[in-house]
Design goal:
The protein has 497 residues and is an alpha/beta fold. Helices cover 24% and strands 27% of the residues. The chain folds into 2 domains: 125 residues, Golgi alpha-mannosidase II (Immunoglobulin-like, Sandwich), CATH 2.60.40; 358 residues, Alpha-Beta Barrel (TIM Barrel). It has 10 helices and 23 strands. Strands 21-20-23-18-17-14-1-19-22 form a 9-stranded mixed beta sheet, with helices on one face. It has an 8-stranded parallel β-barrel with strand order 2-3-6-7-8-9-10-11, surrounded by 6 helices. Strands 4-5 form a two-stranded antiparallel sheet. The mean pLDDT is 97. Bound molecules: alpha-L-arabinofuranose.
C-alpha cells in the first residue's frame, strides 16, 4: 500500500477564494438555451418560458456568475437582434455553429434568467464582426440609467432598472482561426484597447477581460498573451484562459490533467508579470479561467441550419468526474491568481446538467464534484504539503499520485479537504495532519469511485455515478484514511471550541 502524508497548516495560506471561481457559461449554442434553460412548452416552464426544473439544479450548484452569449457564437452576433418585441426579432444563420438563431432569447431575457437563478451575468461583446462602437452601445443599453437612445430603449423594452452588468469579456478566443474574424495579436490588442476605453468611459465600475490565447497548444501561445497585455494592461482587469482536456487513451496522462492545468496557469501568470514589469505597472493582472472542462466532441458543428441542434452533448463518466475533481483542486491551489473561472458549460452543451426536450433532467457525473467544491470550497485556500510518490506520465512527466486542495472557513470553524487519488493499482494510506488547528473532528467523508471507470449516469440509470458518504474516522490532529485506487474524496472537519 502506498502511504501519503499531507500537512495542512492554517498559516500556510494561498488566498481568499473569490466566489467567482465557481462560475459557469451559457452560450447560444446547441441546446444550452433553447430546450436547455428555456422551453416554453415544458411542463415546468414559468411565465417567461424558463424551465424551473433546470433552474433548481443550477441553484443547487451555487454558481455565482454565468458567462453569456459566447463563446464562438459571440463573434458573429449582433446583440440588437435579441432585443425588443420577440415577434420582430430576425432569424439568423449562426455561422459559428451552423445553426439557426431565432433570437427569442437575448440579453434582457438572460438577465431575467440570472435573477431567477440567483447568479450574476458576465457578458461578452463581439470583437469579431463587431466594432468598439457596438460594444459601447451594448454597455450603454445595459448599464446606463436613462435619458439616452440606448438606455431609453432598454426601458421601453420593459427593463426600467439598468442591468448593471459588472464583468465584460472583450471578445472570445480571437487568435483561433475558427473564430469569425479572428485577428493577429497586435490587431486584437489595438481593438481591445479602444473598446476598453469606450466601455470604461461609459461605466468606470465595470471589470474587463482581455482574450488570452485560445489554448496552450496554439502556435500563438504564449506570445499572444504578452502582446495583447502590452496593448491593454492598464485598461483590463483579467486575462482569459481556456482549456479542455480529454482521455486520449492513456489514463495516467488524463488523470494528470490537473498538473498540466497548473503549469498553464503559472505560465500565463508569469507572462502577465513580465508585462507588468515591462509597462511599469503597479497592477497585478488577474486570471479569468473562463472556459475549462473535459470535452470530447471538439469537432462537432451542425451542418443543417436548424434551431437548437443536438451538438456537443458529451456524456461524462466516472473517470471524467475524477479528472474534473483534480482540475477543481488546481483552480483552488491557484486562487491567488485565478479570481474568476467558468465551467464551460452549464446545460446540455458539455455540461453537468442535461435535459430531455420536453422531459426530464439529469445530473452528469461531473455535477457532483463541482457541487461539492462550490459548496465547501469557500473561504481561505491553504497550501497542502504532500509527501507522496510520483507517477511518471508520458505527456506531463512526473506528477504526484495524489492531488489535494484545502479550504479553511474561519468564520464557520470548518476545513474542507479535497483529494484525487490517481493511483491505479493499489489503495493508498492517506494521513491528514491538522495539528496547527488544535482539536478538530472529521464530520464528513464522501467518496466517488466504482468498479467501472467508464460508467455514466443516464436517464434510465441516473444514480450510477454519485458520491457516497462513509463513516468519518476518529482523530483529533492526525486523520488516517484509506483511499481506494482511483477515487475522489471530500473530507470535512469542524474545529472544536
Ligand atoms: O465551449 C465551447 C466552445 O469552446 C466555445 O464556444 C469556444 O470559446 C471554445 O472553443
Amino acid at each position: 500500500m502506498k502511504t501519503v502524508h499531507c500537512i495542512i497548516d492554517k498559516d500556510y495560506t494561498i488566498a481568499e477564494i473569490d466566489d467567482n471561481l465557481y462560475g459557469s457559461f451559457i452560450e447560444q449554442l446547441g441546446r444550452a438555451v433553447y430546450t436547455g434553460i428555456y422551453e416554453p412548452s415544458h411542463k415546468s416552464a414559468d411565465e417567461q418560458g424558463f424551465r424551473q426544473d433546470v433552474l433548481a439544479l443550477v441553484q443547487q450548484l451555487s454558481v455565482p456568475i454565468v458567462r453569456y452569449p459566447g463563446g464562438n457564437f459571440v463573434s458573429g452576433y449582433n446583440w440588437t437582434d435579441g432585443i425588443g418585441p420577440v415577434e420582430n426579432r430576425p432569424r439568423r444563420l449562426d455561422y459559428a455553429w451552423g445553426a439557426v438563431e431565432s433570437n427569442r432569447i437575448g440579453i434582457d431575457e438572460f438577465i431575467d434568467w440570472c435573477k431567477k437563478a440567483n447568479v450574476k451575468p458576465m457578458a461578452a461583446v463581439n470583437l469579431g464582426t463587431g466594432t468598439p462602437k457596438d460594444a459601447g452601445y451594448m454597455l450603454e443599453y445595459c448599464n446606463h440609467p436613462e435619458g439616452t437612445y440606448w438606455s431609453d430603449l432598454r426601458i421601453k423594452n420593459g427593463h426600467k432598472d439598468p442591468h448593471n452588468i459588472k464583468t465584460w469579456c472583450l471578445g472570445n478566443e480571437m487568435d483561433g482561426p475558427w473564430q469569425i474574424c479572428s485577428l493577429s495579436a497586435p490587431d486584437y490588442g489595438k481593438k481591445a484597447l479602444e473598446t476598453a476605453k469606450i466601455m470604461k468611459w461609459i461605466d468606470p465600475s465595470i471589470k474587463l477581460v482581455a482574450c488570452g490565447s485560445a489554448g496552450p497548444w496554439m502556435d500563438t501561445y504564449p506570445e499572444w498573451d504578452r502582446v495583447v497585455l502590452e496593448h491593454t494592461y492598464e485598461q483590463v482587469d483579467y486575462i482569459s484562459m481556456h482549456r479542455y482536456y480529454e482521455n486520449e487513451g492513456n489514463i495516467e496522462n488524463f488523470l494528470a490533467s490537473y498538473a498540466d492545468m497548473d503549469h498553464f496557469i503559472k505560465t500565463v501568470a508569469s507572462t502577465a508579470d513580465y508585462v507588468k514589469a515591462k509597462v511599469k505597472s503597479k497592477k497585478k493582472m488577474q486570471i479569468s479561467f473562463d472556459e475549462w472542462n473535459i470535452w470530447y466532441t471538439k469537432d462537432e458543428k451542425s451542418s443543417s441550419w436548424i434551431e437548437a441542434p443536438t451538438i456537443l452533448e458529451d456524456q461524462y463518466s466516472l473517470l471524467d468526474a475524477l479528472v474534473f475533481g483534480g482540475m477543481l483542486c488546481t483552480l483552488l491551489n491557484n486562487s491567488d491568481r485565478v479570481k474568476m473561472a467558468c465551467l464551460a458549460q452549464l446545460v446540455n452543451v458539455i455540461a453537468p446538467i442535461v435535459t430531455e426536450r420536453g422531459g426530464r433532467t439529469l445530473k452528469q457525473s461531473t455535477y457532483y464534484p463541482f457541487q461539492q467544491v462550490s459548496c465547501y470550497g469557500r473561504g481561505t485556500a491553504l497550501k497542502t504539503l504532500v509527501h507522496c510518490e510520483k507517477v511518471n506520465t508520458s505527456l506531463y512527466g512526473e506528477v504526484p499520485s495524489v492531488q489535494t486542495a484545502a479550504v479553511y472557513d474561519m468564520e464557520a470553524g470548518s476545513i474542507a479537504v479535497f483529494v484525487l487519488n490517481c493511483e491505479m493499482e493499489k489503495n493508498t494510506e492517506f494521513t491528514m495532519d491538522l495539528r496547527s488547528f488544535g482539536k478538530v473532528g472529521m464530520v464528513e467523508h464522501s467518496i466517488l469511485n466504482g468498479p467501472d471507470l467508464f460508467a455514466k449516469n443516464t436517464f434510465d440509470e441516473p444514480m450510477l455515478v454519485v458520491p457516497k458518504n462513509v463513516a468519518p474516522v476518529n482523530g483529533d490532529k492526525l486523520f488516517k484514511v484509506i483511499l481506494p485506487k482511483l477515487s475522489w474524496h471530500v473530507f470535512r472537519f469542524l474545529l472544536e471550541k
